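Hi support team,

I've been running sequence recovery on a batch of backbones for a student project. Most finish fine, but this one hangs at about 90% for roughly twenty minutes before it completes. I'm not sure whether the input is malformed or the queue is just slow. I've pasted the C-alpha coordinates below so you can try to reproduce it. Let me know if you need the job ID as well.

Thanks,
M.K.
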Protein backbone atom coordinates (compact mmCIF):
# COMPACT_ATOMS: atom_id res chain seq x y z
CA UNK A 1 0.00 0.00 0.00
CA UNK A 2 1.23 3.50 -0.82
CA UNK A 3 2.56 5.46 2.13
CA UNK A 4 1.60 9.12 2.35
CA UNK A 5 4.64 11.37 2.40
CA UNK A 6 4.74 13.28 5.71
CA UNK A 7 5.21 16.76 4.30
CA UNK A 8 3.17 19.89 3.78
CA UNK A 9 3.33 22.43 1.00
CA UNK A 10 3.40 26.19 1.24
CA UNK A 11 3.08 28.62 -1.63
CA UNK A 12 6.33 30.28 -2.59
CA UNK A 13 7.33 33.14 -4.83
CA UNK A 14 8.30 32.42 -8.40
CA UNK A 15 11.99 31.69 -8.83
CA UNK A 16 14.02 33.10 -11.76
CA UNK A 17 14.06 30.69 -14.66
CA UNK A 18 12.12 27.92 -12.84
CA UNK A 19 8.86 29.87 -12.47
CA UNK A 20 6.19 28.72 -10.04
CA UNK A 21 7.59 27.09 -6.91
CA UNK A 22 6.40 25.28 -3.81
CA UNK A 23 8.01 25.20 -0.36
CA UNK A 24 8.17 21.72 1.19
CA UNK A 25 8.06 21.41 4.99
CA UNK A 26 9.77 20.14 7.06
CA UNK A 27 13.19 20.99 5.69
CA UNK A 28 12.35 24.11 3.68
CA UNK A 29 13.01 22.54 0.32
CA UNK A 30 12.05 24.92 -2.45
CA UNK A 31 11.03 23.08 -5.60
CA UNK A 32 9.32 23.71 -8.91
CA UNK A 33 5.55 23.33 -8.55
CA UNK A 34 5.56 20.13 -10.65
CA UNK A 35 7.09 18.27 -7.69
CA UNK A 36 3.84 18.55 -5.74
CA UNK A 37 1.94 16.21 -8.04
CA UNK A 38 4.69 13.55 -7.93
CA UNK A 39 5.77 13.77 -4.28
CA UNK A 40 3.94 10.62 -3.19
CA UNK A 41 4.99 8.61 -6.23
CA UNK A 42 8.66 9.49 -5.66
CA UNK A 43 8.30 8.66 -1.95
CA UNK A 44 6.87 5.26 -2.82
CA UNK A 45 9.21 4.49 -5.69
CA UNK A 46 10.34 0.86 -5.43
CA UNK A 47 14.08 0.38 -5.50
CA UNK A 48 15.77 -2.93 -6.26
CA UNK A 49 18.73 -4.44 -4.41
CA UNK A 50 21.00 -4.01 -7.40
CA UNK A 51 20.14 -0.31 -7.97
CA UNK A 52 22.69 2.42 -7.31
CA UNK A 53 21.50 5.92 -6.46
CA UNK A 54 23.37 9.18 -6.46
CA UNK A 55 21.97 11.98 -4.30
CA UNK A 56 23.44 15.46 -4.03
CA UNK A 57 22.64 19.06 -3.35
CA UNK A 58 23.09 20.63 -6.82
CA UNK A 59 26.58 21.84 -7.81
CA UNK A 60 28.38 19.40 -5.53
CA UNK A 61 29.98 17.41 -8.35
CA UNK A 62 26.93 15.34 -9.29
CA UNK A 63 27.81 14.92 -12.95
CA UNK A 64 31.35 13.94 -12.08
CA UNK A 65 30.24 11.16 -9.76
CA UNK A 66 27.45 10.18 -12.16
CA UNK A 67 30.07 9.52 -14.84
CA UNK A 68 32.22 7.65 -12.34
CA UNK A 69 29.39 5.38 -11.18
CA UNK A 70 28.40 4.66 -14.73
CA UNK A 71 32.02 4.00 -15.74
CA UNK A 72 32.63 1.67 -12.82
CA UNK A 73 29.53 -0.37 -13.61
CA UNK A 74 30.12 -0.39 -17.39
CA UNK A 75 33.86 -0.88 -17.57
CA UNK A 76 33.70 -2.86 -20.81
CA UNK A 77 31.65 -0.29 -22.68
CA UNK A 78 33.29 2.99 -21.69
CA UNK A 79 33.23 4.20 -25.29
CA UNK A 80 29.47 4.76 -24.92
CA UNK A 81 30.27 7.71 -22.65
CA UNK A 82 31.76 9.52 -25.62
CA UNK A 83 28.54 9.53 -27.60
CA UNK A 84 25.63 9.07 -25.19
CA UNK A 85 24.65 11.85 -22.81
CA UNK A 86 24.70 11.18 -19.09
CA UNK A 87 20.89 11.46 -19.08
CA UNK A 88 20.72 8.48 -21.39
CA UNK A 89 22.92 6.37 -19.17
CA UNK A 90 21.52 7.33 -15.76
CA UNK A 91 17.95 8.24 -14.88
CA UNK A 92 17.42 11.66 -13.37
CA UNK A 93 14.25 11.36 -11.27
CA UNK A 94 13.98 15.13 -10.89
CA UNK A 95 13.60 15.34 -14.64
CA UNK A 96 9.88 14.94 -14.01
CA UNK A 97 9.54 18.34 -12.35
CA UNK A 98 12.52 20.31 -13.68
CA UNK A 99 11.68 21.85 -17.00
CA UNK A 100 15.21 22.73 -18.08
CA UNK A 101 16.44 19.23 -18.74
CA UNK A 102 15.66 16.66 -21.35
CA UNK A 103 12.10 15.66 -20.50
CA UNK A 104 11.20 15.45 -24.19
CA UNK A 105 13.85 12.79 -24.66
CA UNK A 106 12.55 10.86 -21.63
CA UNK A 107 9.00 11.10 -22.94
CA UNK A 108 10.00 9.83 -26.36
CA UNK A 109 11.84 6.91 -24.85
CA UNK A 110 8.89 6.13 -22.62
CA UNK A 111 6.33 6.27 -25.44
CA UNK A 112 8.47 3.88 -27.47
CA UNK A 113 8.03 1.37 -24.64
CA UNK A 114 4.53 2.27 -23.53
CA UNK A 115 2.54 4.34 -26.03
CA UNK A 116 -0.30 5.03 -23.58
CA UNK A 117 2.04 6.55 -20.91
CA UNK A 118 1.01 9.95 -19.54
CA UNK A 119 3.51 12.76 -19.14
CA UNK A 120 1.77 13.84 -15.92
CA UNK A 121 2.76 10.58 -14.23
CA UNK A 122 6.44 11.42 -14.66
CA UNK A 123 8.44 10.07 -17.62
CA UNK A 124 11.59 9.37 -15.58
CA UNK A 125 9.68 7.53 -12.85
CA UNK A 126 7.87 5.40 -15.40
CA UNK A 127 11.02 4.75 -17.43
CA UNK A 128 12.84 3.69 -14.29
CA UNK A 129 10.04 1.30 -13.35
CA UNK A 130 10.11 -0.25 -16.83
CA UNK A 131 13.88 -0.65 -16.98
CA UNK A 132 15.06 -4.20 -16.35
CA UNK A 133 17.83 -5.10 -13.90
CA UNK A 134 20.13 -2.59 -12.22
CA UNK A 135 19.26 1.06 -12.53
CA UNK A 136 21.52 4.03 -11.93
CA UNK A 137 19.30 6.76 -10.54
CA UNK A 138 20.26 10.29 -9.55
CA UNK A 139 18.36 13.00 -7.79
CA UNK A 140 18.91 16.29 -6.00
CA UNK A 141 16.03 15.72 -3.59
CA UNK A 142 17.00 15.45 0.08
CA UNK A 143 16.70 12.05 1.76
CA UNK A 144 13.45 12.85 3.56
CA UNK A 145 11.65 13.12 0.21
CA UNK A 146 12.80 9.69 -0.97
CA UNK A 147 11.45 6.28 -0.04
CA UNK A 148 12.22 5.88 3.70
CA UNK A 149 13.32 2.27 3.05
CA UNK A 150 15.77 3.14 0.32
CA UNK A 151 18.93 2.30 2.26
CA UNK A 152 17.57 -1.10 3.21
CA UNK A 153 16.96 -1.77 -0.46
CA UNK A 154 19.94 -0.45 -2.40
CA UNK A 155 23.22 1.45 -2.30
CA UNK A 156 23.26 5.23 -2.25
CA UNK A 157 26.23 7.52 -2.89
CA UNK A 158 25.94 11.05 -1.50
CA UNK A 159 28.36 13.83 -2.49
CA UNK A 160 29.04 16.95 -0.43
CA UNK A 161 30.96 20.06 -1.39
CA UNK A 162 32.08 23.05 0.65
CA UNK A 163 29.07 25.39 0.79
CA UNK A 164 30.97 28.45 -0.38
CA UNK A 165 32.28 26.76 -3.52
CA UNK A 166 28.89 25.18 -3.98
CA UNK A 167 27.25 28.60 -3.86
CA UNK A 168 29.83 30.06 -6.23
CA UNK A 169 29.31 27.25 -8.72
CA UNK A 170 25.58 27.95 -8.51
CA UNK A 171 26.23 31.65 -9.11
CA UNK A 172 28.24 30.92 -12.26
CA UNK A 173 25.61 28.45 -13.43
CA UNK A 174 22.69 30.81 -12.85
CA UNK A 175 24.50 33.68 -14.42
CA UNK A 176 24.44 31.70 -17.63
CA UNK A 177 20.67 31.44 -17.60
CA UNK A 178 19.39 34.28 -15.44
CA UNK A 179 21.70 37.13 -14.51
CA UNK A 180 21.89 37.85 -10.81
CA UNK A 181 24.48 39.56 -8.62
CA UNK A 182 26.58 37.38 -6.33
CA UNK A 183 25.06 39.17 -3.33
CA UNK A 184 21.63 37.85 -4.34
CA UNK A 185 22.82 34.30 -5.02
CA UNK A 186 24.77 34.13 -1.73
CA UNK A 187 21.94 35.55 0.34
CA UNK A 188 19.30 33.26 -1.11
CA UNK A 189 21.71 30.35 -0.67
CA UNK A 190 22.03 31.18 3.02
CA UNK A 191 18.30 31.70 3.59
CA UNK A 192 17.49 28.59 1.57
CA UNK A 193 15.34 30.68 -0.72
CA UNK A 194 16.80 29.00 -3.75
CA UNK A 195 16.08 25.95 -5.85
CA UNK A 196 16.34 22.79 -3.69
CA UNK A 197 16.19 25.01 -0.62
CA UNK A 198 18.27 24.69 2.49
CA UNK A 199 21.81 23.40 1.97
CA UNK A 200 22.08 22.39 5.63
CA UNK A 201 18.86 20.45 5.63
CA UNK A 202 20.08 18.54 2.59
CA UNK A 203 23.50 17.57 3.94
CA UNK A 204 22.14 16.95 7.41
CA UNK A 205 19.60 14.45 6.09
CA UNK A 206 22.49 12.49 4.59
CA UNK A 207 24.85 12.97 7.52
CA UNK A 208 22.42 11.53 10.04
CA UNK A 209 22.35 8.31 7.97
CA UNK A 210 26.13 8.18 7.59
CA UNK A 211 26.57 4.94 9.56
CA UNK A 212 24.24 2.93 7.36
CA UNK A 213 26.33 0.39 5.43
CA UNK A 214 24.42 1.13 2.22
CA UNK A 215 25.31 4.83 2.27
CA UNK A 216 28.64 6.08 1.01
CA UNK A 217 29.34 9.78 1.57
CA UNK A 218 31.97 11.42 -0.61
CA UNK A 219 33.46 14.89 -0.46
CA UNK A 220 34.25 16.85 -3.61
CA UNK A 221 37.42 18.07 -1.90
CA UNK A 222 38.65 14.51 -1.28
CA UNK A 223 38.05 13.61 -4.90
CA UNK A 224 40.11 16.56 -6.03
CA UNK A 225 42.89 15.63 -3.59
CA UNK A 226 43.21 11.95 -4.53
CA UNK A 227 40.78 10.55 -7.05
CA UNK A 228 42.32 7.07 -7.07
CA UNK A 229 41.86 6.71 -3.31
CA UNK A 230 38.22 7.74 -3.67
CA UNK A 231 37.66 5.35 -6.57
CA UNK A 232 39.17 2.55 -4.51
CA UNK A 233 36.72 3.30 -1.66
CA UNK A 234 33.85 3.29 -4.15
CA UNK A 235 35.13 0.01 -5.57
CA UNK A 236 34.84 -1.52 -2.10
CA UNK A 237 31.45 0.03 -1.42
CA UNK A 238 29.91 -1.00 -4.74
CA UNK A 239 31.59 -4.40 -4.76
CA UNK A 240 32.68 -3.81 -8.35
CA UNK A 241 36.07 -5.57 -7.92
CA UNK A 242 37.80 -3.42 -10.55
CA UNK A 243 41.55 -3.65 -10.95
CA UNK A 244 43.79 -0.63 -10.45
CA UNK A 245 44.22 -0.39 -14.21
CA UNK A 246 40.44 -0.32 -14.69
CA UNK A 247 40.02 2.33 -12.00
CA UNK A 248 42.67 4.41 -13.78
CA UNK A 249 40.62 4.20 -16.96
CA UNK A 250 37.57 5.46 -15.06
CA UNK A 251 39.63 8.30 -13.57
CA UNK A 252 40.86 9.23 -17.03
CA UNK A 253 37.39 9.11 -18.58
CA UNK A 254 36.02 11.36 -15.84
CA UNK A 255 38.91 13.79 -15.48
CA UNK A 256 37.93 17.45 -15.56
CA UNK A 257 39.67 18.05 -18.88
CA UNK A 258 38.03 15.10 -20.51
CA UNK A 259 34.61 16.08 -19.23
CA UNK A 260 34.74 19.84 -19.67
CA UNK A 261 34.55 20.22 -23.40
CA UNK A 262 32.90 16.97 -24.14
CA UNK A 263 29.83 17.34 -26.38
CA UNK A 264 27.76 15.26 -23.94
CA UNK A 265 28.45 17.84 -21.20
CA UNK A 266 27.04 20.69 -23.23
CA UNK A 267 23.76 21.92 -21.86
CA UNK A 268 21.16 23.89 -23.68
CA UNK A 269 19.21 25.88 -21.13
CA UNK A 270 17.01 28.75 -22.23
CA UNK A 271 19.40 30.57 -24.48
CA UNK A 272 22.62 29.33 -22.89
CA UNK A 273 24.49 26.65 -24.72
CA UNK A 274 27.84 25.40 -23.55
CA UNK A 275 29.67 23.29 -21.02
CA UNK A 276 28.31 23.69 -17.53
CA UNK A 277 31.67 22.77 -16.05
CA UNK A 278 33.38 25.96 -14.96
CA UNK A 279 36.69 25.56 -13.14
CA UNK A 280 36.20 22.37 -11.17
CA UNK A 281 38.46 23.52 -8.34
CA UNK A 282 38.51 23.52 -4.57
CA UNK A 283 38.38 27.09 -3.26
CA UNK A 284 36.91 28.46 -6.50
CA UNK A 285 35.00 31.02 -4.43
CA UNK A 286 38.18 32.43 -2.83
CA UNK A 287 38.57 36.14 -3.50
CA UNK A 288 35.32 36.25 -5.46
CA UNK A 289 33.00 37.56 -2.75
CA UNK A 290 32.91 41.11 -1.39
CA UNK A 291 34.70 40.94 2.02
CA UNK A 292 31.57 41.61 4.05
CA UNK A 293 29.62 38.88 2.30
CA UNK A 294 32.57 36.52 2.61
CA UNK A 295 32.69 37.06 6.38
CA UNK A 296 28.92 36.64 6.60
CA UNK A 297 29.15 33.29 4.83
CA UNK A 298 32.02 32.13 7.03
CA UNK A 299 29.97 32.90 10.13
CA UNK A 300 26.92 31.16 8.65
CA UNK A 301 28.97 28.06 7.83
CA UNK A 302 30.56 27.91 11.26
CA UNK A 303 27.27 28.35 13.00
CA UNK A 304 25.40 25.76 10.98
CA UNK A 305 28.16 23.21 10.63
CA UNK A 306 28.50 23.14 14.40
CA UNK A 307 24.82 22.40 14.73
CA UNK A 308 25.00 19.64 12.16
CA UNK A 309 27.81 17.66 13.70
CA UNK A 310 31.17 18.65 15.18
CA UNK A 311 32.79 16.01 12.96
CA UNK A 312 31.64 17.75 9.83
CA UNK A 313 34.90 18.11 7.98
CA UNK A 314 34.34 21.61 6.55
CA UNK A 315 35.34 22.96 9.93
CA UNK A 316 38.88 21.76 9.61
P1 LIG B 1 32.47 24.59 -10.82
O1 LIG B 1 31.24 25.37 -11.19
O2 LIG B 1 33.12 25.08 -9.55
O3 LIG B 1 33.43 24.46 -11.94
P2 LIG B 1 27.06 19.42 -10.45
O4 LIG B 1 27.42 18.36 -11.41
O5 LIG B 1 26.55 18.91 -9.15
O6 LIG B 1 26.15 20.43 -11.07
O7 LIG B 1 28.40 20.17 -10.05
C1 LIG B 1 29.05 20.99 -10.97
C2 LIG B 1 30.44 21.31 -10.46
O8 LIG B 1 31.24 20.11 -10.50
C3 LIG B 1 31.12 22.34 -11.34
O9 LIG B 1 31.97 23.10 -10.46
C4 LIG B 1 31.93 21.45 -12.26
O10 LIG B 1 33.01 22.09 -12.88
C5 LIG B 1 32.41 20.39 -11.27
N1 LIG B 1 32.85 19.19 -11.98
C6 LIG B 1 32.19 18.47 -12.90
N2 LIG B 1 32.95 17.49 -13.39
C7 LIG B 1 34.14 17.58 -12.75
C8 LIG B 1 35.36 16.83 -12.83
N3 LIG B 1 35.50 15.81 -13.65
N4 LIG B 1 36.37 17.21 -12.01
C9 LIG B 1 36.25 18.25 -11.16
N5 LIG B 1 35.11 19.00 -11.05
C10 LIG B 1 34.07 18.66 -11.84
Amino acid sequence: MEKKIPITFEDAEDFPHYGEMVLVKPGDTLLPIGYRRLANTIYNFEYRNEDICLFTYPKSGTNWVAQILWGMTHINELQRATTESVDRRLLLLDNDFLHDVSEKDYMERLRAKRPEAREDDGPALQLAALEKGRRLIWSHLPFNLHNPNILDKCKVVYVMRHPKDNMFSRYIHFNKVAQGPIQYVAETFMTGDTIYGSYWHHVNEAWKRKDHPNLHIMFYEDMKADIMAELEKLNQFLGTSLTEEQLKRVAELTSFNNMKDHPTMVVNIQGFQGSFLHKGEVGSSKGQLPPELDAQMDAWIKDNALRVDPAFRYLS
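--
Follow-up from support: It reproduced on our side and the slowdown came from queue contention, not your input. Strands lie at 8-15, 19-25, 29-32, 52-56, 91-92, 136-139, 155-160, 215-219, 266-269, 272-275. No action needed from you.
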